[in-house]
Amino acid sequence: MISVLHTLLTESSVSRAAKLLGQSQPAVSAALRRLRELTGDPLLVRSGSRMVLTSHALTLIEPASQALASISAILHPNDAFEPASSTRTFRIGSPDYLDVFFVPEIIDAFRRAAPHAKLEVKHLQMVDGGYESGLEAGLLDLVVGNWRKPPQHLHIQTLCEDDLVCLLRADHPIPKGKLTRDAYENAEHLSVTTYNTGPWGTIDTELARNDLTRTVTATLPYFGMAPYVVARSELLFTTTRALAAHYAQLLPLRVEPLPCSAAALTYYQLWHEGSHRSAALRWLRRLVKKVAQTALATRSGQQTKPEQKRGNSST
Questions:
Q1: Tens digit of each residue's pLDDT (9 = 90 or more) over 270-283
Q2: Alpha helices, H only, 81-192
Q3: 249, 47 in Cβ contact below 8 A?
Q4: pTM above 0.90, yes or no
Q5: Contact status, residue 5 vs residue 64, Cβ threshold 8 Å
Q6: How far apart are CA 285 and CA 179, in angstroms?
Q7: Cα 58 from Cα 64, distance rounded (Å)
Q8: Which residues contact 177 (CB under 8 A, 6 or more apart)?
Q9: If one looks up domain 164-257 in CATH, what number appears?
Q10: pLDDT for 179-230, tens place per residue?
Q11: Domain 2-75 class in CATH
Q12: Which DSSP category does 307 fall into?
């Protein structure tokens, strides 16, 4: 009915409207009668030998055009996305251990590709209900992080790997290259509480798997604080190579391998089924993937893994 209304208004002729719509003239005349009843206005009136729009009909042209565009967007979604002209706001959830070397490169790449769009990066601990609820509710478009067992109900794409190392003061009493199992277990350690609220975090789980223990005597809420504490103490800090390598270039710190064969951590990006087919969010995922191949993989000294196959891992 909206299509008939719009065509009648733009053509000001029942016969021309019928031809454009591929309908019979009696069918369009019947539709016009119904529209007159619905709007309470004659819409088209005769003026000499032709039909003209009433003043009320003139006000309906734009709303009818907008309604048709909205219906078309629903029935025929546009698969194209132009980042250069987009004004959309995108939201990424990220743990703060990625803040110093990954997030800045994401923002830089995003701003260059989509200068008119907005990007909000949210700490995973700051999302009401947790990141899984945030993705489901549309409060987050994408989440980046590492999980030993990523949630099975979300779409997932592997970004790269990073191994665990130990960060300590450059002039620490433990000599360079002498971080043995005994030295590690006898030292005092610094730890950071994360969005993983279970009693065993990723690092402790991996240490336990290698029958290695640590005595944590200080904890912090944010990863960005840890290197500065380590630089002024004899605490050891077990973390990822990418983060450790970054701060070892800025502070009087050094990186030592763990005295065990700890498995590498895998970075992923996760998203919800509700955003899986969005052209805009497919673009965002491609951008994050590309940045991860340089910002994460290069800093960690690792090669990117082949993309994980789970059936729901396509971009």
A1: 999 988 988 999 99
A2: 103-113, 130-137, 181-186
A3: no
A4: no
A5: yes
A6: 39
A7: 10
A8: 256
A9: 3.40.190.10
A10: 999 999 999 999 998 655 444 477 888 899 999 999 999 999 888 899 999 9
A11: mainly alpha
A12: P
Secondary-structure class of domain 83-158+266-300 per CATH: alpha beta
Longest Cα–Cα distance of the chain, Å, equals 103
Burial of 199 (0-12, 13-18, 19+ CB in 10 A): exposed
- Whole-number Å distance between alpha carbons of 103 and 122: 11
In angstroms, rounded to a whole number, what is the distance separating the alpha carbons of residues 313 and 282? 12
Q: Edge-to-edge, what's the strand order for the sheet holding 155-162?
A: 118-123, 89-94, 142-146, 265-271, 155-162
Q: Are strands 142-146 and 265-271 parallel, antiparallel or unpaired?
A: antiparallel
Residues 6+ apart with CB under 8 A from 248: 167, 254, 255
Per the CB < 8 A criterion, the answer to whether 266 and 212 are in contact is: no
Residue with tokens 């809420």: 221
Give the separation between CA 116 and CA 76, rounded to whole angstroms.
26
Task: Find residue 82's DSSP bridge partners.
Answer: none
Could you give the CA distance from residue 268 to residue 304 in angstroms, rounded to a whole number?
11
